[in-house]
Write a structure and sequence with these properties.
By secondary structure, this protein is α+β, with helices and mostly antiparallel strands. The chain contains 13 helices and 29 strands. Strands 17, 18, 19, 20, 21, 23, 25, 28 and 29 form a 9-stranded mixed sheet that branches. A hairpin with a 2-residue loop joins strand 10 and strand 11.
Length: 478
């Protein structure tokens, strides 16, 4: 079905983040709006198929409010901005995350395919609307997935028009997609996505923009960028916590903070796990305690012909930081190469701002004094002033890695103190906490006896002759 505009706009401009709930979901609040362009050929209407390119798995919907410019806007003020809008309608800023890697932030292939911007079904006259009192809702297969109103926008519509018109002349018919609220996620062939914009104070509606996801009837041509996904991208597309990176139970985290890594290492060895320490790293602050779940980043050796493709722009290093969730530890596999930096003060500050529990790298740290002053528990192999392009290419995130000789999987638990860092398998953590607590009590008792002059034989480790004395001592502890 044709889209409701009648004519093709000269441009479609989309806003990245504009709802507070979406910013919270993404873990960052922009100071100013940012934009990308979608081609007019991506327009479609209600009833048209959303065609997922063959080979892609992460087809995503984003319900949005679309503004249609009615009067030419050039260097207008925020107060004048809304008066240049003629119509309001519903939109779905659809795309495939699988191709997001290909365009370094432009989103052309990931969001610009034919039919990836359905609009409609009806246009609402903007002159009769309060731009701060519109409601946006999205359904997938009849189930509500998004619901927000424009009183929660980070950047009101008039501000967007004014900001864009400083440098870009907005022509009649141009479309502005104003951002999606929390709840955007992935759909598969057969799913039906519906988006509606209403003005509750006027009791009017665009009607439901309805599109069914289908699979392409032909293979994606074999030249050019091809689909590429990893665990982190899947989690980003779905908008949910990574299933392989579960949050750490607060009670378990508190218990781990009270345990020494030496004790944890001892208990792991008793279970046959003798390679669970991250070797060759030291703490920026020996007094700090590190406890959190692993979010991983893998570096590969430098190849000059690949560095421009993988090292520039929003590369895996920057993505890893932006993907961090509260309580996670950024763990980096730098192949134990201490001759180039793997993190500096700006990205470390960003990690702290996102609520990271710490950083571990078996490579070098740049700006080491500034990083140490952040108060973010950080473990590293060496200091070095050089940047990535000397030794490393940031390659991928959210995958199993080797760090300091230890295998670290996303979601593993990291515990660090002045002695180093230990990797704790999540499925063992509860029994380890209990056994470590018992071991540390025994060692406290033994230390008291040694301080009182008792000899080591039979006492350390605790032998049968001392069991009754220990049980009595333990009963007196609080």
């Amino acid at each position: 079905m044709p889209h409701p505009l009648g004519t093709q706009p000269s441009k479609i401009i989309a806003v990245h983040l504009n709802y507070r709930c979406r910013a919270k979901e993404r873990g960052r609040v922009p100071e100013q709006p940012s934009y990308f362009l979608k081609p007019p050929s991506s327009l479609s209407g209600t009833g048209d198929a959303l065609v997922r390119p063959r080979g892609c798995e992460l087809m995503a919907y984003e319900g949005e409010i679309a503004l249609v410019v009615g009067r030419r806007a050039h260097r207008v003020t925020p107060e004048q901005g809304w008066s240049h809008v003629a119509w309001v309608t519903a939109a779905n800023d659809a795309g495939v995350y699988d191709l997001r890697h290909a365009d370094r932030g432009s989103n052309l292939r990931s969001k610009g395919a034919d039919g990836f911007t359905p609009l409609g079904p009806r246009l609402l006259d903007a002159a009769g609307l309060d731009p701060a009192a519109l409601r946006l809702r999205t359904w997938v297969n009849g189930e509500p997935v998004q619901d927000a109103d424009t009183s929660t926008l980070l950047f009101p519509f008039g501000d967007l028009i004014a900001d864009l018109s400083r440098l870009v002349t907005l022509e009649p018919g141009d479309v502005i997609l104003t951002g999606t609220p929390a709840g955007a996620s992935v759909v598969v062939p057969g799913d039906v996505v519906e988006v509606e914009v209403t003005a509750p104070d006027r009791e009017i509606s665009t009607g439901r923009l309805r599109n069914t996801v289908t699979d392409a009837g032909q293979d994606l041509a074999g030249w050019g960028a091809m689909p590429r996904v990893d665990a982190a991208l899947r989690a980003d597309a779905r908008g949910t916590a990574r299933p392989d990176e579960p949050a750490l139970d607060p009670d378990i985290a508190a218990a781990l903070r009270g345990l020494a890594t030496a004790t944890l290492s001892s208990q792991l060895r008793k279970r046959g796990l003798a390679h669970m320490t991250i070797d060759g790293v030291r703490p920026a602050d020996p007094a700090a305690k590190l406890v959190g779940t692993a979010h991983t980043l893998r570096y590969l050796p430098l190849r000059e012909d690949l560095f421009e493709r993988f090292g520039g722009g929003m590369n895996a290093q920057k993505r890893a930081v932006e993907e961090l969730r509260p309580g996670q530890v950024l763990v980096m596999d730098a192949r134990r190469d201490p001759t180039a930096g793997t993190l500096g003060d700006i990205l470390a500050l960003r990690a702290r701002t996102r609520g990271a529990a710490g950083v571990v790298t078996d490579g070098a740290l740049r700006d080491s004094a500034a990083v140490a002053a952040l108060g973010l528990p950080t473990y590293y192999a060496a200091e070095h002033p050089a940047v990535l392009g000397r030794r490393h290419v940031p390659w991928e995130t959210g995958v199993p890695i080797a760090c300091g000789g230890a295998l670290v999987q996303p979601g593993d638990i990291l515990v660090g103190d002045a002695d180093g860092v230990v990797v704790v398998p999540p499925d063992l953590v509860e029994e380890l906490v209990a056994d470590c607590a018992e071991q540390e009590l025994q060692e406290r008792f033994i230390a008291e006896q040694v301080a009182a002059g008792e000899p080591i034989p039979g006492l350390y480790p605790l032998g049968p002759a001392w069991r009754d004395a220990y049980r009595h001592w333990r009963s007196l502890q609080h």
